[in-house]
């Protein structure tokens, strides 16, 4: 079983989108039994909140099922629970380093570093561009799944 945790700032936009996109890609590939997928935040700002309406709308538009989810914050004690801890941007990397400390098992990586076009996934909370975020998340998740 490969365990993947997607992480962003608030766990209502990008990481949640990545969680549901990856779950759908895994389902379509017939590999559901091989993965456990979740998402979390580096901040506590959105704790308990559902996914952002823009995230839900974009996923539904793309035919990606949206499951039940409430924002939560990643904890230091979770490091050993995950095979891959995937973040979206430099701010998330900094937040994860504060929370987790070191990464001795090299589990932490940026989502789009799995692609041929490594860069940060822009936060649609600020940009309002859920389409671009979806395209980046899809590309990253497809590349990650192909590598696993």
Automatic annotation (TrEMBL):
Q: Can you tell me which family this protein belongs to?
A: Belongs to the low molecular weight phosphotyrosine protein phosphatase family.
What sequence ranges are listed for the domain Phosphotyrosine protein phosphatase I? 2-147
**Any one GO molecular function term:** protein tyrosine phosphatase activity
For the keyword Transmembrane, the answer is no
Q: Which organism is it from?
A: Candidatus Olsenella pullistercoris
Q: Record's CDD domains?
A: LMWPTP
Is Transmembrane found in the keyword set? no
- Keyword entries, A-Z: Hydrolase, Protein phosphatase
Q: What is its EC number?
A: 3.1.3.48
Q: Enumerate the active-site residues.
A: 8 (nucleophile), 14, 123 (proton donor)
The protein's name is: protein-tyrosine-phosphatase
Q: Which InterPro entries match?
A: LMW_PTPase, Ptyr_pPase, Ptyr_pPase_sf, Tyr_phospatase_low_mol_wt
């Amino acid at each position: 079983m490969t365990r993947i945790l997607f992480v962003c700032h608030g766990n209502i936009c990008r990481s949640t989108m990545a969680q549901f996109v990856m779950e759908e890609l895994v389902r379509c590939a017939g590999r559901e039994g091989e993965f456990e997928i979740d998402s979390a935040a580096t901040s506590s700002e959105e704790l308990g909140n559902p996914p952002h309406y823009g995230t839900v709308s974009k996923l539904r538009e793309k035919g990606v099922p949206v499951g039940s989810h409430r924002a939560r914050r990643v904890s230091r004690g979770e490091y050993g629970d995950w095979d891959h801890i995937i973040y979206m941007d430099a701010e998330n990397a900094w937040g994860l380093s504060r929370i987790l400390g070191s990464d001795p098992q090299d589990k932490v990586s940026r989502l789009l570093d799995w692609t041929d076009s490594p860069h940060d996934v822009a936060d649609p909370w600020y940009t309002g561009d859920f389409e671009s975020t979806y395209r980046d998340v899809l590309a990253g998740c497809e590349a990650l799944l192909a590598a696993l």
